[in-house]
């Protein structure tokens, strides 16, 4: 009896010890993988034996339309072309997706390939979760056909850790009924004429959800503001420059006059509701607005280029990238899957059927997309869409920018103080990159 | 001869104690293993991470002393101090109001003869409702525009204000919404425990009070409240500890906006860890929260003397 009891305790203790040991060994393996070379021998052995390679792909496509099309059309197309590679597609949903990737990286349970928000790539690269793709066969050819803006967001510390998969930018959406009230027969080409007409009428005509970068930066840039120098290494002298101060003051002036409202600060009607009801004449949004608003034509809504201010207008680049994780044992096959998704045929198909804006220059010129009323506007707007600072600390930078714009618009600080403080903080972050 | 008997007896007794200890260990072991794996080890690891720069992929920890704490205390918007203040305010506002309303409802339900079970169920329903669902309902109620039922009531029905209040995106509007949700969600729990405590009071106390000519209020003040003090103590500790663990209502209702003015420690921990990937700062917030709860519990244990 005593022997049985003691044996049980020893077995339990040993189980506990070995469970811990196994995990750390796995961790060691994945670290050794960073150069993308160590598993090459295993791959060659499997290739020689003709075994089917299995890869896991995580995505956050929408459940209604995007996921079924991806699963039922895109994946079978890939299987037909690459019968030796099996892709296990895991739909993770959009909620807490980025957090889930981080947790999986920390627990060595990452997928082989994943769709990632383009602003998350450098952060995951800094952590050591993603594999660099520069040395992959066919990388340079692929890169030359991709838009520069989305491509730049995948760059970290001298290497590309992802490739853009789909892109998005904001364009203007006008309510033509409201424009008529303001005296326009067609969409205004300049911000100056639109502002004059709106102020004359004394109404709320533009709205954003918050002073966060995705909402606020297109206006900030359009009115002449700049955040950093061209290579994203310095904010002082740019974010706190006279032209940036003037841009924010212009927006603050419009906000004070009630023409430009910010839902988070003013509690004003949501932009989507307001544009549909005719409360707002214009707001900036991505192409998905039209996918979710089937009756947009009947409601008098129209997509158009963002009106210019002082002969310039700017949009913002959004979208997703695709990355291969260091834990992937079959990086060559994983890259073949990436190449397949970035082929013109698939990019056009995903654009038409899944509402994913192509990232290939050749796909963007495809007549099937350029002849579409909505896509033609967004594809043209993409040419003057700016990218946000590609940094592993992007969330911290976003926080500093939002704090600055929020404080200025709520008059907690002056424009000069807010921008100077933010520039110094962002410099501190950029120096750690 | 006698000595050897005593020795044998002592030996047998120590053998028995040894056997009993082994038997106890066998029973304790499953729980102990779980506690070590899921409580003590993470606790120690958290302390270690809070003083280090943590590389999540390799698991490498580089000792950085108090750097994580310094970063929290010197952040430009003072988010840590605002979050700590909000936790204290939540405790100060939500705990007494929940206790008071819970007690009143318990006394009321205890005094009625019909439908008491129905009322118990109605008041307890919020407790078993998911925080996320309740949060979404409150988000709808506190919608910033005129579409929000609370704003509609204030502007169009009661005419208290002419413009709708931006409840969830202002510092005090957001905090008040979070407090109201906390109170609404916890009243049922306080009510149920108070009801059990009140029903456990010997009826003879009330009979004596009635003979002495005590009014209903006097009975409540001098009989009920003193005799349910252990329950009040337990609930106070529970609610105060709960105040340091406020998270979901902030996540759903305000997201800490504007500029972290409605944030709380657990929400700050979440954003520092999973949004900014600052694992050390997140662990430091966790450690400070644990120490705060420990101090609150020790003070309450000392100050609230309970005669059981």
TrEMBL record, chain A:
Signal peptide positions (record): none
UniProt key word Transport: yes
Domain of life: Bacteria
Gene Ontology biological process terms from the UniProt entry: maltodextrin transmembrane transport; maltose transport
PROSITE patterns named among the record's database cross-references: PROKAR_LIPOPROTEIN (PS51257)
GO cellular component, one term: ATP-binding cassette (ABC) transporter complex, substrate-binding subunit-containing
Keyword DNA-binding: no
One Gene Ontology MF term: maltose binding
Keywords: Signal, Transport
Pfam families: SBP_bac_8 (PF13416)
Family annotation (Gene3D superfamilies): Periplasmic binding protein-like II (3.40.190.10)
PANTHER family xref list: MALTOSE-BINDING PERIPLASMIC PROTEIN (PTHR30061), MALTOSE_MALTODEXTRIN-BINDING PERIPLASMIC PROTEIN (PTHR30061:SF50)
Family affiliation: Belongs to the bacterial solute-binding protein 1 family.
UniProt protein name: ABC transporter substrate-binding protein
The species this protein was found in: Vallitalea longa
UniProtKB/TrEMBL annotation, chain B:
Primary site of residence: membrane
Cellular compartment(s): Cell membrane
Keyword Transferase: no
Membrane topology: Multi-pass membrane protein
PROSITE patterns named in the record: ABC_TM1 (PS50928)
InterPro entries: ABC_transporter_permease, MetI-like, MetI-like_sf
Family under the similarity heading: Belongs to the binding-protein-dependent transport system permease family.
Protein name: Sugar ABC transporter permease
């Amino acid at each position: 009896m005593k022997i049985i009891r003691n044996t049980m305790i020893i077995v339990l203790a040993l189980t506990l010890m070995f469970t811990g040991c196994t995990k750390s060994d796995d961790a060691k393996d994945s670290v050794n993988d960073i150069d993308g070379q160590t598993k090459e021998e295993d791959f060659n052995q499997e290739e020689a034996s003709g075994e089917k390679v299995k890869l896991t792909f995580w995505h956050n496509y929408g459940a209604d339309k995007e996921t079924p099309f991806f699963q039922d059309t895109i994946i079978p197309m890939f299987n037909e072309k690459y019968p030796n590679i099996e892709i296990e597609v895991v739909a993770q949903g959009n909620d807490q997706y980025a957090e889930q990737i981080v947790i999986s990286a920390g627990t060595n349970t990452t997928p082989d390939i994943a769709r990632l928000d383009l602003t998350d790539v450098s952060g995951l690269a800094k952590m050591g979760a993603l594999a660099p793709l520069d040395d992959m066969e066919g990388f340079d050819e692929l890169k030359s056909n991709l838009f520069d803006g989305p491509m730049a967001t995948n760059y970290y510390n001298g290497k590309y850790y992802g490739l853009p998969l789909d892109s998005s930018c904001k364009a203007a959406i006008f309510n033509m009924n409201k424009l008529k009230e303001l005296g326009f027969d067609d969409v205004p080409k300049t911000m100056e004429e639109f502002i004059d007409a709106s102020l004359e009428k004394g109404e709320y005509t533009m709205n954003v959800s918050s002073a966060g970068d995705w909402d606020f930066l297109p206006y900030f840039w359009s009115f002449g503001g700049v955040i950093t120098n061209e290579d994203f290494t310095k904010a002082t002298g740019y974010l706190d420059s006279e032209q940036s101060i003037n841009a924010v003051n212009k927006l603050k002036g419009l906000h004070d006059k009630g023409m430009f409202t910010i839902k988070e600060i003013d509690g004003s009607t949501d932009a989507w509701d307001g544009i549909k009801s005719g409360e707002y004449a214009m707001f900036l949004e991505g192409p998905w607005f039209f996918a979710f608003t089937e009756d947009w034509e009947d409601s008098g809504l129209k997509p158009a280029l963002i009106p210019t201010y002082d002969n310039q207008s700017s949009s913002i680049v959004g979208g997703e990238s695709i990355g291969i994780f260091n834990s992937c044992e079959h990086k060559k096959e994983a890259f073949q899957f990436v190449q397949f998704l970035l082929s013109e045929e698939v990019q056009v198909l995903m654009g038409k059927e899944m509402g994913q804006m192509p990232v290939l220059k050749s796909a963007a010129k495809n007549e099937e997309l350029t002849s579409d009323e909505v896509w033609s506007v967004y594809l043209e707007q993409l040419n003057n869409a700016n990218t946000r600072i590609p940094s592993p600390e992007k969330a911290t930078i976003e926080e500093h920018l939002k704090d600055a714009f929020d404080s200025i618009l709520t008059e907690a600080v002056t424009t000069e103080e807010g921008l100077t403080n933010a520039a110094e903080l962002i410099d501190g972050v950029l120096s750690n990159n | 001869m006698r000595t050897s008997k005593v020795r044998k007896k002592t030996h047998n007794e120590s053998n028995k104690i040894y056997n009993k200890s082994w038997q106890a260990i066998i029973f304790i072991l499953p729980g102990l293993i779980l506690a070590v794996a899921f409580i003590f080890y993470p606790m120690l690891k958290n302390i270690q991470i809070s003083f280090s720069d943590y590389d999540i992929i390799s698991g490498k920890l580089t000792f950085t002393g108090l750097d994580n704490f310094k970063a929290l205390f010197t952040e430009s918007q003072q988010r840590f101090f605002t979050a700590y203040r909000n936790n204290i305010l939540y405790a100060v506002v939500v705990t007494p109001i929940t206790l008071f309303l819970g007690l009143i409802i318990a006394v009321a339900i205890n005094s009625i003869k019909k439908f008491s079970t129905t009322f118990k169920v109605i008041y307890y329903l919020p407790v078993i409702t998911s925080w996320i669902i309740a949060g979404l309902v409150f988000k709808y109620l506190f919608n910033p525009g005129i579409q929000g039922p609370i704003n509609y009531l204030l502007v169009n029905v009661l005419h208290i204000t002419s413009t709708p209040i931006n409840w969830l995106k202002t510092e005090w509007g957001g905090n008040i919404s979070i407090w109201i949700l906390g109170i609404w969600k916890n009243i049922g729990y306080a009510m149920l425990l108070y009801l059990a405590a009140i029903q456990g009071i010997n009826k003879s106390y009330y009979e004596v009070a009635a003979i002495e000519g005590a009014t209903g209020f006097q009975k409540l003040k001098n009989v009920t409240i003193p005799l349910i003090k252990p329950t009040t103590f337990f609930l106070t500790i529970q609610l105060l500890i709960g105040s340091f663990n406020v998270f979901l209502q902030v996540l759903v209702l305000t997201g800490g906006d504007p500029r972290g003015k409605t944030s709380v420690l657990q929400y700050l921990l979440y954003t520092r860890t999973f949004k900014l990937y600052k694992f050390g700062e997140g662990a430091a917030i966790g450690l400070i929260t644990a120490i705060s709860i420990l101090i609150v519990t020790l003070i309450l244990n000392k100050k609230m003397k309970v005669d059981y």
